[in-house]
Input
Amino acid sequence: MPLYLYQGAYTSEAWSTLVEKPQNRIDAVRPAIEKLGGKIRGAYFSFGKYDVVLIVEMPDNVSAAAMAIAIAAGGAVKAAQTTVLMSPDDGLAAMKKAATSSYRPPKTK
Output
């Protein structure tokens, strides 16, 4: 099943609520992800632009997009990014396939 990296940044209101009443939000999103046919493979808090990182298995891109849309619709996340992940073997296969394409960069003078 395809893997996706989901990164989310909480709103200040969401952080205020979590500071006032700490809770494991992974327990809240897990059933929604599972209902879409997915599974959480890893979940982390992080420093930087994003506060939360999930590694999820989802059946397909539509299911991954549905997960991201559902989380965004909740209003607790101000910014998010979903990235399709590829195994090293798939990345190598993509490189080999790219070599067979007819793409050529623009010519410079």
